[in-house]
Amino acid sequence: MTMSVGRPKREMISREILKKIHETADRIGRLNIMEICGTHTNAIAKHGIPSLLPEGINLISGPGCPVCVTSPEDIDTAIHLADRADVIFCTFGDMLKVPGTALNSLERLKAMGRDIRVITTPLDCLKIATGHPDKTILFLAVGFETTSPAVAYTIRTAREKGIANFRVFSAHKLIPPAMKVLLDDDDINLDAFLLPGHVCTILGKSDFEFLTDYGKVGVITGFEAEDILAGIFMILRQINENRRSIEIEYRRVVREEGNARARKILYEVFDVTDAAWRGLGEVRASGLKLREEFHGFDAADAFDLPSIDARKNEGCMCGDILKGKKRPSDCRLFGQACTPFSPIGPCMVSHEGTCGAYYRHGRHLSGSVHTQKRDGK
């Protein structure tokens, strides 16, 4: 199946796959499948996929939104750095509204007159830096393996061009270590994963082989409705055949070996480090820090970063939602005090956040509790 086929053809493909899903599910019973990508979360909600599946096939939204998993401490640190007259602070659009302690945000600072700019690519920062040599251009680097190579390339380019007034505050995260935390949590019962096509474009499949050590299935899928349905069927087929492996549905984009050049650039600039995740806490080897030879571009070297004890916004369940332990509808703030127009937590802010998806497409997302155990186990 390809993205070039017409809509009637794609709908026919989807109906055929759904028929196979229902036929196979009858032989399996209850199954908990987690998607680990915010783009999947939004697509699943938009197309109403949960409402099409057999009873007992639960789709669970995991920590696949980079904006959402950024720790409260990192959000407060970013707000602190942006509140400087000698800085032009650059970030992606979704980060503006993420509330920090006391519901302060980058958006509020911008409204108060601080120079905070939304960019579409990290390379935009270098253009700003050359045009404002009297300012420090500070980029809040948020994202998974999909975006971090582009940030590494930007830092390397800044060094090559001698752009000395560019700094990066790295809040990058790595997906596989977070998945291990979820699998080690006895309160979260998962059978399989829909793996993120964008991330796997960089990583390939080998970084996810550990799932089979846990007895779990993983399928790398694209983002069209038929991609996601095909991925679900491939999971069901594996379980029905008593197999556990990592398969690629998204072969029009993802190669088994991934993108070796992108990984080379990434680890030329960054080292792996421990990192704090919203909801998951401190996760070993799940973050990226600048290597010694690139420390001149590290915001931590340019500024005295404060020691921040961020406070959770009262009543917000974003942490448990990111782990799949709660649904947005379980939160008393959802759709009331917390909306995309006045978000209390980051899961409502981002287009890839679970709460945002529920708010936009909630009629499709009713279902059983995500962490309900399979077959009573």
Architecture overview:
The protein is an alpha/beta fold and 377 residues long. The chain has a domain at 69-174 and 258-302: 3-Layer(aba) Sandwich (Rossmann fold). The protein is built from 16 helices and 11 strands. It is globular, with a radius of gyration of 21 Å.
Helix content: 25-40%
Average of pLDDT: 92
Rg value:
21 Å
Q: Name the beta content range.
A: 15-25%
Approximate shape: globular
CATH architecture tag of one domain? 3-Layer(aba) Sandwich
Catalogue the unreliable spans: 366-377
Number of strands: 11
CATH H level, superfamily name of one domain: HypD, alpha/beta domain 2
Q: If strands are numbered along the chain, what order do they take across the biggest sheet?
A: 2-1-7-8-9
In the CATH hierarchy, the third-tier topology of one domain is known as Rossmann fold
CATH class of one domain equals Alpha Beta
- If helices are DSSP runs of H or I spanning 4 or more residues, what is the number of helices? 16
Structural class: alpha/beta
The N- to C-terminal Cα distance equals 37 Å
- Biggest sheet, open or closed, and with what strands and sense? 5 strands, parallel
Order of helices and strands: HEHHEHHEHEHEHEHEHEHEHEEHHHH
What features would you highlight for this structure?
alpha/beta, Rossmann fold, 16 helices
